[in-house]
Amino acid sequence: MESFRLINLQKKKSKLVIGLMSGTSLDGVDCVLCSIKNSAFKTEVKQINFITHPFPNRLKEILLENSIPHKGNVTDITKLNFLLSFVYVDAIKKLIRKSKINMKEIDLIGSHGQTIQHLPGKEKYFNYKFGSTLQIGDPSIIAKLTGVTTIGDFRTGDMALGGEGAPLVPYFDYIMLMSKKNNRALLNVGGISNITILKKNGKPNDILAFDTGPGNILIDSLSKKMFNADYDKDGEFAEKGNINEKLMKDLIRKDNFILSKPPKSTGREYYNEKFIQPLLNKFNRLPRYDLVATITNFTAYAVYRNYELFVKNKVKIDKLYVSGGGARNKFLLKQLQYYFGKSVKVFNIEKIGISSDAKEAICFAVLANETISGNPSNLPKVTGAKRKTILGKICLP
Amino acid sequence: MESFRLINLQKKKSKLVIGLMSGTSLDGVDCVLCSIKNSAFKTEVKQINFITHPFPNRLKEILLENSIPHKGNVTDITKLNFLLSFVYVDAIKKLIRKSKINMKEIDLIGSHGQTIQHLPGKEKYFNYKFGSTLQIGDPSIIAKLTGVTTIGDFRTGDMALGGEGAPLVPYFDYIMLMSKKNNRALLNVGGISNITILKKNGKPNDILAFDTGPGNILIDSLSKKMFNADYDKDGEFAEKGNINEKLMKDLIRKDNFILSKPPKSTGREYYNEKFIQPLLNKFNRLPRYDLVATITNFTAYAVYRNYELFVKNKVKIDKLYVSGGGARNKFLLKQLQYYFGKSVKVFNIEKIGISSDAKEAICFAVLANETISGNPSNLPKVTGAKRKTILGKICLP
Predict the structure, then answer these.
(1) In terms of CB atoms within 10 Å, which of A77, A349, B177, B354 comes out highest?
(2) Would you say the C-alpha torsion A63, A64, A65, A71 has a positive or negative sign?
(3) Strand, helix or coil for residue A236
(4) What does the alpha-carbon distance between residue A59 and residue A65 come to, in Å, rounded to a whole number?
(5) Could you tell me whether strands A184-189 and B128-136 are parallel, antiparallel, or unpaired per DSSP bridges?
(6) What does the pLDDT look like over B103-156, one tens digit per residue?
(7) Which residue of B has its CA nearest to A159?
(8) pTM score, two decimals?
(9) pLDDT for A79 beyond 60
(10) How far apart are CA B178 and CA B148, in angstroms?
(11) Which residue from A117, A118, A22, A111 is spatially nearest to A64, judged by alpha carbons?
């Protein structure tokens, strides 16, 4: 009988697991193959192969249209939910070919899906008060087309219990990256930036983690507008500019996410055209390099300001490890080091043996392994959920 | 470890299962409690209690807005996906209270969800050709809030394999209602009508099943427009009218679903305002009772015409059992008997011991039991899928 498949999977000491992450940048899906031994604190992960599979042309635009609050439409969303899974399956097949292994050898797939709306703030709707979120890229389609058990939709379960459904990476950070010697901060700079603070030898209740605000989302948007580039490669545009103090002040005044208390999470619903365009109109005489430099500096500032407000008096961090696309932005790293000062060393996360690009995809491979192992993997103190719970929906092939 | 929960569930001979169905009528959720023994052909179901839990005021309108092709928006859909689950959980709690049992005694929940878009026709989108569907009312929210393992999203897996994801009820009909003596047809008249033809002692490949066209969807819409009633109670409006032959002709000419070959499925995407309003404009002098009588007759005609075109030369049915809200429409039953003639007896399905109202909800309780038992429950010949597969996503509490 079929559910013995799950038991056999659970019993298997070492598994080949694929992790999929498609983030707020909307330009492709990160796809990692790794071997995972054991679970929870005993988890050992070895990255075997990693690819970023680009989305087809024009998909980003259509996803964007369907991510704007109160925009999009049911037909697009229905079709995109299927389409993305087909794209994910293509990514998986490409990774498998590149790795010269057979799909049948894969034990498990963990897929984050594509967030097209994240509304963590609890609002009244009819007689209920709740936050909500929507990830598309149906995991059962992935399971049926690959023949591999797939876990997806990790966020809804936590939100059902009153949590924000985010961030989920801190659990991974906690079981994989906590140090016995140093207070570590893990900063992932994807579209949005999120930080995890791991007190040395800490307990789950010691973990602080939340979104700090923009990641590459504003930098990418400016790079597009000003240079018709998808992003600021290595921070080169920013490097050529000067930080404009007046624009910095306006950005800080405009932002009301940085000051809001954790647990908190954000997304394109907040950091979008409406956020940036009025300031661009006002500062339209500023050299475009200065605009990118200033917005990159603001991104670093947002991280530090959050640290100052919500972390520093509880945990003084020793080291800050940066991952995600933003880890390659040298100007951003420089500004982070500037804000955090001499007492905190800023590194690319590769320093501690994790691929900066693959980190989030690895996280969803590990979270899938936790689900199949029967381990709850939300951190209630971090997400605000009422209790620990096993995340994700199990989809049989 | 948690997945032993599934094994224990699988091993349990008799389970208390709740089935949830919210259909195209968009006015509430049918919620049944039953005990289920064994699985597949050995399945024994005993209905313990049944309720229809009405949706909150105004929810129907918002669901309707978000079901119209190319309408709706991502924020509403995201919130409705959560909201519906809360409403479902309220329905479950009400049923539990009424049944005087404890939630902890419930073993399993099967939930169909609310279809807000069903696009079974394969169309090219980017470089992929596929049909798609979207059910909302997230099953993992139901699992977390009830503490009961929940299976939902039964249609996507079949569609991933090229099927229409519908109809799913024929599998239930096949394992539960096939006769050794008679060729049976099971007709469910919900918003849409679907029929299952069970040849006596048939094999899965003998089953014919498909949507025949409108169920109550056009009758309800006319009852609203003409009498400000939610539906035509017992067919009383129709009973007072005469069938108008000219309108019948126009309806038949207008409809291009009836003539299309199975496998086929339809929904509000086709039978909606655009379908009916031009004819109402043309026939605006007809007495309103005649309009309802004619549209009800057309609904019966659609069933029979499908039988004539796609069934009769393969299986000559002996008995037709009607379920769903339409089974209470006496005029509809009379017209069905008229079209099918003396050789076919038309009954309410209660005649063979199944509650007419609860049938679809029971079906999803049984389908959840099939999933947890590891049994594939799509019928590839009926849905058009490439292969049999286990349906649904498993959501742990």
Answers:
(1) A77
(2) positive
(3) helix
(4) 10
(5) unpaired
(6) 999 999 999 999 999 999 999 999 999 999 999 999 999 999 999 999 999 999
(7) B141
(8) 0.92
(9) yes
(10) 31
(11) A117
Residues 44-73 of B with CB under 8 A from A: 56, 58-59, 66-73
Structure tokens at A20: 């999929």
Query: pLDDT-based confidence at A268, cuts 50/70/90?
Result: confident
Which residues does residue B35 pair with via DSSP β-bridges, in sequence order? B16, B46
Rounded to the nearest angstrom, the minimum Cα separation between A5 and chain B is 9
- Picking from B189, B347, B342, the residue whose alpha carbon sits closest to that of residue B271 is B189
Average pLDDT of span B157-165: 97
How far off is chain B from A72, nearest CA to CA, in Å? Answer: 5
Residue B54 Cα, gap to closest chain A Cα (Å): 14
The SS3 call for residue A292 is helix
Interatomic CA distance for residues A77 and A137, integer angstroms: 10
- Give me B285's structure tokens: 């002098």
CA dist list (Å): B9 to A6, A258, A370, B13: 13, 47, 21, 9
> Reduced to 3 DSSP states, what percent helix, strand and coil does chain A have, rounded to the nearest 5?
45, 25, 35
Q: What's the CA angle centered on A70, arms A64 and A76, to 5 degrees?
A: 50
Element of type H or E holding B156: helix B155-160
- Amino acid letter, residue B150: T
E-strand spans in B143-259? 150-152, 184-189, 192-198, 208-214
Locus of tokens 């015409």: B305
